[in-house]
Amino acid sequence: MHTGSERPGGEWGDRPATGERLQRRRVAVFLGVTFAVSWATAAVIYGLGGVGAGPTLALGIPLWLVLLAGPYMWGPAIGHVAARWLTDEGFDRGEMHLRVRTRSRPWLVGWVGPLVLILAGAGLYFLVYPDLFGGTAAVADLLATVEAETGQEIPLSPTAFLAVQFVQALVAAPLLNSVATFGEEFGWRAYLLPKLAPLGWRRALVTHGVVWGVWHWPVIAMGYNYGLAYTGAPWLGLAAMTVATVGLGVFLGWVTLRSGSVFPAVVGHAMINGSAGLATLFATAVPNPVFGPTPVGLVGVVPWLAVAAVLFVRTDWLYPDERGQAESGPESV
């Protein structure tokens, strides 16, 4: 087992250490359990009426959403634990990337970086589709529609409303979403990515992103993220999600590699989930989500892919150093 700041998978270059082999059995167990848990949950959601339908729980929370944020998103974490248990791998905390104390930079990048890239993707989308950009006027129309539907006045100007939304994205999103996103990150970034290191880190990052995208397919086919009424949805959405998870996966994998901890990626993933919809506030009409402006659209994800391309060229930015030392401080208990 690897301990301290060493990581499984050999050197932090494009090629693994000499003699390092892909642990096929452990990868197979992880993927088998992960997909079994998550896709079985998707089958339950489908049986209840699908995404957006079915019974509700207390406070009007839909059951399908609870199942999605619970057993579906926690399937990778369950797969991680099952793979270590069933293959007698053991549970070394450092190897599982459960460090809390790391240098501040990966935390900052994981926290603020997604919002910057989401806004960059939205800006690109509205450059491609300028007729859909309404600025604060679109926000004013949205507030007026909400007031008309609810019968309640919203005591905020469009600018103040936007400020509140951005503050909530930066503060509330990491806190509220991290419990659910930990389930994914503990599987994809803390287990699968290091296990794929013998492929070379570039291939490992792309491959684990593709797997992550395919894992989403059942709920995408039910209309999650892309709906069912748009041209090419949901089937084009399957491809769009896979492209998006490669771009997002490289970013989240990067902050994991740089920190030696899964927690900056947990925060980053929580930020993505909590702030991805901000760009839609500026749209004059409901956009086709297959293309954007969210980061799971084919246009909205372009800045993420650009970051991935830069990291693949500048491997000195992607990898901590030639010896494979994590950019981490003393471990905490």
Describe what you observe in this structure.
The chain has 333 residues and is an all-alpha fold. The protein has one domain. The protein contains twelve helices and no strands. The protein has helices at residues 24-47, 63-72, 75-86, 104-128, 135-150, 158-195, 201-215, 217-221, 235-259, 263-275, 302-313, 315-318. Helix 1 (24-47) packs antiparallel against helix 2, helix 3 runs parallel beside helix 6 (158-195) and helix 9 packs antiparallel against helix 10 (263-275). The longest helix is centred in the middle third of the chain and has 38 residues, at 158-195. The radius of gyration is 20 Å and the shape is globular. Mean pLDDT is 86; it is low at 1-19 and 321-333.
Number of strands: 0
Structural class: mainly alpha
Helix content: 55-70%
For the sheet with most strands, the description reads: none
Overall residue-averaged pLDDT value: 86
User: What fraction of the residues are assigned to beta strands by DSSP?
Assistant: under 5%
* Element-by-element helix/strand order: HHHHHHHHHHHH
List keywords for this structure.
333 residues, single chain, mainly alpha, disordered N terminus, disordered C terminus, 12 helices, globular
Question: How are the elements arranged and paired?
Answer:
Blueprint: H1 24-47, H2 63-72, H3 75-86, H4 104-128, H5 135-150, H6 158-195, H7 201-215, H8 217-221, H9 235-259, H10 263-275, H11 302-313, H12 315-318
